[in-house]
Amino acid sequence: MPVPDQRDPELTRAILTRWLNRHLPGVRIPMIETPKTSGFSSETLLFDASWTEGGDAGEGTDGGAERHEPFVVRVAPVHYQIFPEPRFEEQYRLMRILDERTGVPVPPIRWYEPSAEPLGAPFFVMGRIDGDVPTDMPPYHQDGWVTHVPPEERAAMWWSPLEILAELHTLDVAALDLGFLDQPAWGATGLDQRLNYYEHYLHWAYEGPQETALRALEWLRANQVDEPDPPAVLWGDARIGNIIFQKGEPRAVLDWETAMLGAPEEDLAWYMFLDRHHSEGIGVPRLAGFPSYADTVARYEALLGRPMRHLDYYEILSGFKFSVIMARIGQAMIDFGWIEPGNTFPHDNNCTQLLARILGGLQ
Fold it and tell me: What is the pLDDT of residue 39?
């Protein structure tokens, strides 16, 4: 969900040029692209940089090769927070490990600035990957570029991320020093942490009624399932709308701010629930080419080498988590004056309505 951008592009360009000069002496940034809107979870700045490699920065381009590279800056939330604790540095640490030590495709991670002094909040710089990202507004089953590609490309866009998930879910947490993703302050690793955290998040997000979300939480606690396997690294926001594609092939996986440790079923269920929300949840059919959810589960079981357990439970968990996020988005819409304080959107929206239908079908 976007918020209005308030940065001065020229001032931002000057600040980033001075900062980047420490890493790339003599760097030149012709312009900074500050999107008209910027996300709650983090702010995005785009720019192209030029510098002379191997030459004397004080003597123009003589004696060295001229280099050009496109970059992206991700800035920690400044204007508004969608999550109670953004965990921004953890996102950077995870992406650097994935970039340098695994085959999970993320943008090349370059530098991190922990201080808020340059841009008003910590930020990190990564390489920019060209490609297309399926849209959430409008949902990709309804409109946008995904509606215009052939069905076989849509199928590739659906199947290929499952291979990335399987690689992620089989990473060695200890060998890669990924224990920092655990959040023991919220309870035991996995479902205990998730339910406690999102209950806290729900009450922080929005002070109005939350009948459907609270009903889901009650059901989840009463029917909590076992997670017998060692905790895996979870993406946390596994969906095709967080992937840069080129002709159906994933080139970079984005948005790791909700990464955690838990059961792979949690990521797979979210992957399917968000797609269901973008189709059935808004009253439109899934586009031709997208495989069925049953085939998706079967394919993922083959990739992971074991059956998926309790996916009905994790689907409700997905709906509950997304309803909490939507409550926060609704509160933001109130705070920014986009809807009236009494508007029902924070607790009555496409997500909560879909979740209510799923809960209503339980025996």
Answer: 54
Last residue of a domain, one of 65, 97, 127: 127
pLDDT in tens, 103-139: 999 999 999 999 999 999 999 999 999 999 999 999 9
- 185 phi and psi, to 5 degrees? -60, -20
Distances (CA, A) of 95 to 128, 172, 194: 14, 15, 22
Q: Which helix (H) or strand (E) holds 329?
A: helix 311-335
Using alpha carbons only, give the angle 169, 172, 176 rounded to the nearest 5 degrees. 115
Task: Answer whether residue 101 is part of any domain.
Answer: yes
- DSSP E strand stretches across the chain: 2-4, 32-33, 37-39, 43-53, 65-75, 109-113, 123-127, 232-234, 243-246, 249-253, 260-262
How many CB atoms are located within 10 Å of the residue 33 CB? Answer: 13
Assess whether 338 and 261 both reside in one domain: yes
Q: Are residues 260 and 216 in the same domain?
A: yes
Q: How many CB atoms lie within 10 A of CB 306?
A: 11
Strands 32-33 and 43-53, bridge-based pairing: antiparallel
Question: What domain range is 240 assigned to?
Answer: 145-360
Those residues with Cβ within 8 angstroms of residue 55's Cβ, 6 or more apart along the chain or in another chain: 26, 61, 62, 63, 64, 65
Angle at 12 between CA 76 and CA 83, to 5 degrees: 15
